[in-house]
Amino acid sequence: MRMQVGPYCTVSVDAGPQAGVEVVRVGGELDAGTTDELWPLLRARIERAGHAVVVDLTEVSFFGSAGLKLLMDGWQAAREHQVGFAVAAAHEQVLKPLRITKVDGVVLVRVDVDHAAVAALLDRIAPDPAEY
């Protein structure tokens, strides 16, 4: 199901290419006008994910600083819930801000959803052995 988030952004959520991977697909403009509505959806997916979450930004046409914050907040939430987290991004309008701010050194960024799903699964943090 695809839903409108703000006037110029759409989002959908579906199962990923591998079992246990949730994919949050974002299209259009990812800016301050859309991230406030998108964050609760992303957080809920991270909290319920089996193993990993991929944020698919391959259809994003504008990526502002609010998008960077959304990804960093998602990465932090994934760490807290021991869930792998990665981003699929192929266009310079998304990749350039990720590189300039060095967010791509923290968040795993891959060229498509398939590669991001594998990276996210490998990124998954194993449970602390002290908890057993």
From TrEMBL:
Stored CDD domains: STAS_anti-anti-sigma_factors
UniProt domain STAS: residue ranges: 11-120
Matching SUPFAM superfamilies: SpoIIaa-like
GO MF terms, alphabetically ordered: anti-sigma factor antagonist activity
Pfam families attached to this UniProt entry: STAS (PF01740)
Family membership noted in the UniProt record: Belongs to the anti-sigma-factor antagonist family.
NCBIfam families, sorted: ant_ant_sig
Protein name: Anti-sigma factor antagonist
Annotated organism of origin: Lentzea xinjiangensis
